[in-house]
User: Fold this.
Amino acid sequence: MADLILFVGSNFPFGQFVFNKEAAFIQVDTDLTKFGRRHHVDLAILGDGIDVLKRLVDKTAPRTADKWLLANKENIKNWHSWRQSFYEDQSLPLREEPVFKEINRIATEDAIFVTDVGNVTIHSVRHLEMTGKQAFTTSGWFATMGYGLPGSLGAALSFPHRQVFSLSGDGGFAMVMQDLITQVKYQLPVINVVFSNQSLGFIQAEQEDTNKENFGVDLLDIDFAKVAEAMGAKGFSIRSYEELAPAFEAAKNANLPVLIDVKTHSSRPLPVEDLQLDEDLFSSDTINNFKERYQVFTMPILKDLLK
Ligand SMILES: Cc1ncc(C[n+]2csc(CCOP(=O)(O)OP(=O)(O)O)c2C)c(N)n1
Ligand SMILES: [Mg+2]
Assistant:
């Protein structure tokens, strides 16, 4: 649990579930109505986040890296190399990582990613290698499924000279797929990627977490590429690793709406908030099952890095 929280330009709506209520809280924002919304504030600074951070750095003296910082640096390095180790994974149905490798490969320096709601949000946050000039948006507070495709219309119309992706799950995409007609009507060159895991994946995971039987989460195997073609967009249906690169290459060069429907596996993303890897807390059976299930063999926990 953190004892100090530096909250910069954020309105993190789920903060109440994760913040230490006792922590000291410094909040920086350009909008004073945000102060104290998620946590009591000990120090409120009205100002631009980047500017305030720069000034704070100027006011402080450099210090040598301590054990905590070094362990965290090692931890984040391990995390990135773990997730990137699946970039070339060819197992079927495909994992999401090879798809993101392609998205990252063809994304322009200032591309806009409009992400739907579900496991697809978790994967996007983890695997988009953002350049700093790119933009990312999702339905953060209301978590509205069906945000991806309509959001991409707004992005493409507002920023006609930037590359726009919509990234959706099969559930979220099916709710709004008629909006492809608008992309076609105005010839908006959006690259729509659908992660078809034939599941309301996020809810499937939620049912597991709350000890419920899976109910109402299975989806049909729809050929979204054909749907796209029928509406006048270019469609690709991807079932194997080899098909990925050519489809994304074509999407990169197409000057019209494209839909890439990737048939993916339906396993949930690694639950980082509930790792079962600590020998002091879990039996070796539990740990081994967890490692096997999520293929996490090479990532020590932070506690071990701090030893
Ligand atoms: C409009 C709306 N309905 C229901 C939900 C609850 N919900 C959150 S994620 C999710 C499933 C998303 O499924 P899918 O789009 O296939 O993405 P996946 O999790 O499989 O990646 C549901 C039903 C919601 N957030 N918004
Ligand atoms: Mg799905």
Remarks:
- Residues 251 and 258 are 6 Å apart (CA to CA).
- The domain at 93-263 is CATH 3.40.50.970 (Rossmann fold).
- The radius of gyration is 21 Å.
